[in-house]
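Sanity check

After download, print the first record. It should look like this:
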Amino acid sequence: METAVRPEPAPSPLREHLAAGLKGLHPAYFALVMATGIVSIVSDVLGLREAAALLFWLNVPAYAVLWLLVAARALRYPRALAADLASHQRGPGFFTSVAATCVLGLQLVLLRGDAAAALALWWVGMLLWCACTYAVFVALAVRDPKPTLGEGINGGWLVAVVATQSVVVLGTRALVPRYPGSEAVLFFLASLWLCGGMLYVWMISLIFYRYMFFRFSPSDLMPPYWINMGAVAISVVAGTSLAALAPGSAFLGALLPFVKGLTLMFWATATWWIPMLVLLGIWRHGGPSRIRIAYDPLYWGLVFPLGMYALCTYRLGELFAMPVLPWVARTFATVALAAWLLTAFGLAGRFLQLVVLAVRSLHAERGAAGPQPGSLERMARRS
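Expected structure tokens:
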């Protein structure tokens, strides 16, 4: 007697979509936490307490969910994760985990006054910085074959600078109060700040060279190109934080003119980039080969520099007692908040698409399952 072979159930479109999303999860997705955190901090500095608190409570679960997704990806798709680590395009994105950790720590100490949690996150950020620095750069250095400079370098590399300076900024708020009067701690933070500045010089030289002397199409101009400005903006915040500690330190007191001068140079560089980036953005989205604006997780890497420029300008105004700078900071804070809202709407649209896909998938599964047990008998009794 032959037995009927039951056909294999068709794969669920929802499961396929979720599996593909998890496998291709971009390492730079932590820029969402960076952007939300810095807009929250700027809102608090400028007196928008409710907005700052709301963004803080959005950021905490976002940070936790992203780590859960990274852990799930590492368990389910370890090869994809390893491939990203050795990718010139995606590998530097891992540094966003460092900056996101430190920005969340900064929110904790500035908005909630939780110095212990902020210090714990500083240590996590420091360990992540060591792991990313020596895993990503070593993996890229020993990779064979390597892409050309035009194919491999992009603005996302400067997230390494952002990560370095974020450790310095949180260190001045969490580590220094834990070890008051320690010149060794200040020496370490100042050295790390200078290290971040030197990384910027190395990387921006390659990026500028790539812009000027290689073929450049609108598709090459990905949203993280705004990190060209954001990396020096966070260097300004780190410099102003170190300068604020100079009155209580013989070491920083001796370096104060140098720290203030270098901080001003970083701010001038960040300001120089803004018109250039705006014009390039118009060319990307409004030129003959324009690219349609659609949600991309990399757009969080555009929001963060805008918020960081607002914060660094406000801090620089305090350092040099320039009353016009806080007004510039308020303008950029408004722009950053608007950019955050637009990007958040894009993300909400993605979630909505996921819900629609889930409903359709559920209906398709019910249709494939056929009549439920007992339904035929009930239909017969009614007839």
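If your output differs, re-run the checksum step. Summary of this record's structure: The chain has a mean pLDDT of 89.
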